[in-house]
Specification:
With about 500 residues, this protein is an alpha/beta fold. It is about 35% helix and about 10% strand. It has 13 helices and 13 strands. A 4-stranded mixed β-sheet has the order 2-6-8-7. The radius of gyration is 30 Å and the shape is elongated. The protein binds S-adenosylmethionine. The site of S-adenosylmethionine has 21 residues, from strand 4 and strand 10. Keywords: Chromosome, Methyltransferase, Nucleus, S-adenosyl-L-methionine, Transferase.
Length: about 500
Amino acid sequence: MEGLEEQKDTSVNNEGQQGEAPPPYKLIERNEFLHRKHKKQKEEDIAICECQYDSNNPDSACGDRCLNVFTSTECTPGYCPCGSHCKNQRFQKCEYAASRLFKTEGRGWGLLSGENIKAGQFVIEYCGEVISWKEAKQRSQAYESAGLKDAYIIYLNADESIDATHKGSLARFINHSCQPNCETRKWNVLGEVRVGIFAMQDIPAGTELAYDYNFEWYGGAIVRCLCGASCCSEFLGAKSRGFQEATYLWDDNDDRYSVENVPLYDSDDDEPTSKSHNAIIPYIPIAERDNEELLRNTDDFDSPIFSQSMPIVVEPINFAPMEIDEAKYDTTEEDTIYLESTQQNSAKKSAMISRIRSNHACRNYHTESSPLSKSSSRNAGGKSKIGMRKQIDVKLICERLAISEAREEILACEETKKQATARLDSLYDKIRPAIEEHERDNQDSVSTSVAEKWIEASCCKLKAEFDFHYAICKNIVITPRVCDAPQVDNTVDEVILLENGH
Ligand SMILES: C[S@@+](CC[C@H](N)C(=O)[O-])C[C@H]1O[C@@H](n2cnc3c(N)ncnc32)[C@H](O)[C@@H]1O
């Protein structure tokens, strides 16, 4: 909450100065919904993690190992087993990193980190007005007609965008970089998807925060990118859908908007060879200032430090400009592998969740009879399941096995398999309303919590099936048949098992 307070003050103070200030906008901490109501989280959609708070170890409460954190879902207050200790409510509690505004040269206003930020840390939520895609398009055109050059509309999902032009959090000031230190991530918060800015690497205090607008951005005018990265793609959001639909160019003396030979991309793969256009904004540090002192006073705009520098507030202490110092940001091979594998893992995870969420996947899951499919008993491909699998006659197998432990093992595995199947069946009954709702309204989806339970139950069932089949195969191979073995007591059974087990 400290960060939030600081940001509120910063914004108010900025706007209260006589000097240059960003064009007016309303600072908000929650998305505002214009075309629909804020969704209410249904009880059955609430994801409850299994974390247990240990007072001797404060880190025990909903950290990296929390099931909800793993699926990018915030815990729901009142339901989390860690209660008030839960650390997985960062969007809800506005647990932002300290940051402050500064005026860039050539890229309007930007946002600086006001503290050392750790890799992976939640920096701030991108808040604004949630509008439909159609409205986003209309607004974008209207802004352009009104002469607004800075664009603040980003994608939320296939149907909705967030517009932070009139109302937004300080995240609206984060500029684009083709070699960013932050990224956007979508989180499920109380049933709504929200967009957060997260640090991709450790970010020292006083560094400009930036993320890659590509694919996220519903741009306004086509803007020449001045991030200065060697891998710069030259135009802001050049790969975004909005960019490809843009039909206008700014025609004035501003270098950023005079664009020739604008490239269009169909996809990431089409990206042309990057060129550096050496358009780096030179940063001239404010000489003879004590950085420590500046940092302490960053939210105190009445301090002598700021009044000296008015009217333009430019305080990029230790500011690493958008020009990237290759040596500083050089990643080791290990880092690269880690980054790639993290991205791949997360892509795989998302794909799995998406599959579970999609109607297709939900319909197809049930290859065995369920309460739903009792009458038809067909899988999604339309084939009758009867005959698809060879039935195992457990009773017959057990009658033939001479050793009681072998029989018991098979029967126990069969029981576990039955329980896992029943659990999946009952989950399917619970999931059915969500699927039906999903079919009615494609903005809605099967919640992550349900998808997650679904994956868990499916995995349990698969494991139980595997164990069952393994127990049968193993015992058929190593256990003597009733007819082969003398009918003896259990002690003798054990001896025979050992002998035959070789
Ligand atoms: C979300 S706003 C960022 C804040 C903005 N600089 C401001 O002053 O309010 C996006 C706009 O900032 C400018 N911008 C952001 N990153 C830029 C970059 N790398 N190069 C040039 N302009 C940039 C563009 O005008 C863009 O439409």
